[in-house]
Please model this.
Amino acid sequence: MLEPPRRHRPAPPAPGNPGGLAERAATPRAVLGLPPGSVPGQAGPPAGEVLHPALPSSPTRGREPSPSPEEFERPSSARVYDYLLGGAAHGAVDRRAGDELTRTSGDVVTLARENRAFLRRAVRFLLAAGIDQFLDLGSGVPTMGNVHEVVARSRSTARVAYTDVDSIAALHGQALLAAVPTASYSTVDVTDVAAVLAAPGVAGLLDLGRPVGLLAFSMLQHVPDDAAGLVERYLARLVPGSALAVSHFTTDDGRATRHVERITASYAHGAPRARSRDQVARIVAGVDLVEPGLTWAGQWRPEAGRPPADTDPRGHWAAVGFLR
Ligand SMILES: C[S@@+](CC[C@H](N)C(=O)[O-])C[C@H]1O[C@@H](n2cnc3c(N)ncnc32)[C@H](O)[C@@H]1O
Model:
């Protein structure tokens, strides 16, 4: 049985932090062993500085997610990933798949953490570069240091529109974000660009006339055909100065992925398709990449004192760039 979404009672708002965002971010970061406080050298605007006009207290989120019986019976990428990260939004079927991956396919927990740590660094980097609205494709469960939590810890009020096809992850997401006016969660298939951009949680939250950070962390492997073309279609709708951050599952490293294909074949929303570095390079070809270019996720601007070990498995190619 899957646990129902945990309805967090929002912490009392701190002065200058109307959504109580920083407080809500504290627990997951502590779980991940992340340092408290803002990022040295990359602090966002001072707490309380408002970047946007006031938002309605409950941004529109679009259609209510309605999980099908099949979704409950099969593991899903969103929920297995949540399990690997130590989250709480998964069921027994996801734990079984996650355990089997861990048993047979090497250090998948490290792969998941490596990807999540890249997300954190990439979002901080984009905030420091002035991006203050994000469209996150295939978001998974918005906990365990996901985008709006990184935004909050950077003391920014940047907006985050999460999207995912997984109705159960979306149920958790909408419950968790109910009191966060700067974030929304839309249940939508990201291969339908028009549907994503028209979703009330996206269209009602983001201003496409201004730069947007388009995020696709460990999700494009779920787009079996022409992921590069899909990203191109999104970029065509964004203004210059917008950014793209991508991480993509790969088997190029070869150490951690032996049984992944078999185990993930039963995923509710499609199994991942690993791509090579050259294939991922085509996906990010539409933007000017910042240093160090396309690299292993763990090696993209690692935090001082926390470089990846040579022995760490490498499961994602990663890059960040800007639209000219
Ligand atoms: C490995 S998880 C990554 C989650 C998150 N982006 C992260 O990096 O932490 C992949 C996510 O992509 C989602 N996904 C897969 N296919 C999708 C689609 N066609 N449309 C929207 N989301 C999709 C899955 O449901 C899952 O939440």
